[in-house]
Amino acid sequence: xxxxxxxxxxxxxxxxxxxxxxxxxxxxxxxxxxxxxxxxxxxxxxxxxxxxxxxxxxxxxxxxxxxxxxxxxxxxxxxxxxxxxxxxxxxxxxxxxxxxxxxxxxxxxxxxxxxxxxxxxxxxxxxxxxxxxxxxxxxxxxxxxxxxxxxxxxxxxxxxxxxxxxxxxxxxxxxxxxxxxxxxxxxxxxxxxxxxxxxxxxxxxxxxxxxxxxxxxxxxxxxxxxxxxxxxxxxxxxxxxxxxxxxxxxxxxxxxxxxxxxxxxxxxxxxxxxxxxxxxxxxxxxxxxxxxx
Length: 293
Known about the structure:
Alpha-Beta Plaits, alpha/beta, elongated, 8 helices, Rossmann fold, four-stranded antiparallel sheet, 30% helix
């Protein structure tokens, strides 16, 4: 199966600043992928490279088996702040989309506009943030891309508008089967819709893989204070210690049956935060779940 996104040692620099550092990924097609990390981690840079708006400094990148090209009919992109043309009406956005995209699905566009309650005669500059986001998503989806890239599409929306947007996105992906990569620093939102996750911190990939595998393979261990040896068989993501107690977040594919540890499950946000903290502490390195290399 063709990968939605494949990179090998992908690097992007702006002068002396490295925005993306030796990024290696293989994202399978047909998934809704969350790209999560703090502000400045390189999320926008990766998405702009994927849609051909930027060229890499080093390394390789492919989207849908091809070198990215700006304006490709196979890839849709919604940039940060869900840009629309303030002086154009909703209907004029749809006519412009039809003019620019040979594969334009007018039925889909008109149906979505009706579903989300947008007035075709309303100028985009008068729409709320949530309405602008829905308009931008509609224009991108009506292009009928095989891969849809969304850069922080809900960051500026209130909770109700975010929920409405994400519901619309889930309906679109269920109907079309397109692959989606959506960046955000709001893990709870991504957890609702994504089945694959990439954690990007400090310009480097910390982990990438299937969400269910991440949840099953990560644990919090609490027990008497002790040094953490290399022979434990665990990949220690984050650790903290008091005078009497050690707390670890570990990745392990095997059951942890040491009775001296209390073993607790983690949710996705716990896992993401552990990788962020581990990377900030200098322990971060690229990790890819088994089967995703």
